[in-house]
Design a protein that fits this description.
There is one protein chain. This protein has a domain at 58-204: Rossmann fold, CATH 3.40.50.10140. Helix content is 63%, strand content 10%. The chain has 8 helices and 5 strands. It has helices spanning 2-51, 55-60, 80-94, 105-108, 115-124, 135-139, 141-153, 191-240; strands at 70-75, 102-104, 126-133, 160-164, 182-183. Helix 5 runs parallel beside helix 7 (141-153). The chain is globular. Residues 17-26 have a biased composition (Basic and acidic residues). GO terms for molecular function: Toll-like receptor 2 binding; Toll-like receptor 4 binding. Residues 68-206 form the TIR domain.
Length: 241
């Protein structure tokens, strides 16, 4: 009788142990399946974003971008504070991974060269013109001339970025009243980043517009070729009849 009770107790312990082991084994399975379900619902978008080519990278590597020598022409006055601010902006834009090509007159003009000629050429060879507008800029006749030169190259073409620094609203140039501007006085930390994003977005728009024009021209060429072939066949059939 005593042996019979021992067998029952042993069998009960064995079943309870197996049950606990099965529970312990099921928990990782449940957690793995829940994690896999969660990852299947969220990870595809993450993987897609990770391996999706960024538009800015496409714009930077585009052949259209390299048709011009500079990405940004930075125009500023000869005041020491303006030179320092423009230099900081250019160094920020040129640093990787932004890697923009900038024209800064006190750095990129040739000694002994004609400043007027080099400035006008740099404007023509730049995709975008960034104007560092300060009280000194407004009072500088040369800066005003360069602003009008930039406007004449592409009026209302979204190729100009007014960047304000400590400028009262009453002194803002009327020629630029239709342009959105970036106020470094209000956004001292984010201002340079906003300039960088604006430049990249404009470069992306240039690439997209070029692609649209290429598709349109290709479609017109195909249409003209198809129409010419049909007309030629019609003339030949009429001649044969």
């Amino acid at each position: 009788m005593h042996g019979w009770f021992q067998k029952i107790l042993k069998s009960g312990k064995t079943k309870s142990t197996q049950h606990d082991r099965s529970k312990d084994g099921e928990d990782p399975v449940v957690s793995i399946s829940s994690v896999s379900a969660l990852s299947s619902s969220t990870s595809p978008s993450v993987r897609t974003d990770r391996f999706k080519p960024q538009q800015s990278n496409v714009a930077l590597s585009s052949e259209l971008r390299w048709r011009r020598k500079y990405d940004v022409f930075v125009c500023h006055s000869s005041a020491l504070t303006d030179i320092e601010e423009a230099t900081r902006l250019v160094l920020f834009l040129e640093e990787a991974p932004r890697s923009l090509r900038c024209f800064l007159w006190q750095r990129d003009t040739c000694p002994g060269g004609a400043v007027f000629t080099e400035f006008c050429q740099a404007v023509r060879e730049s995709h975008i013109q960034a104007l560092l507008i300060t009280p000194s800029f407004v009072q500088d006749d040369w800066c005003n001339y360069m602003m009008h030169q930039a406007l004449s190259e592409g009026p209302m073409s979204n190729r100009m970025i007014p960047v304000l620094q400590n400028l009262p609203h009453a002194q803002y140039p009327q020629e630029l009243k239709f342009y959105y501007y970036i106020d470094l006085s209000k956004y001292p930390d984010q201002g340079f980043s906003m300039v960088n994003k604006t430049v990249h977005r404009l470069l992306e728009n240039l690439v997209q517009n070029e692609m649209k024009l290429s598709c349109i021209s290709a479609g017109l060429s195909c249409g003209l070729a198809g129409g010419g072939g049909t007309q030629e066949g019609k003339v030949v059939s009429e001649h044969d009849s």
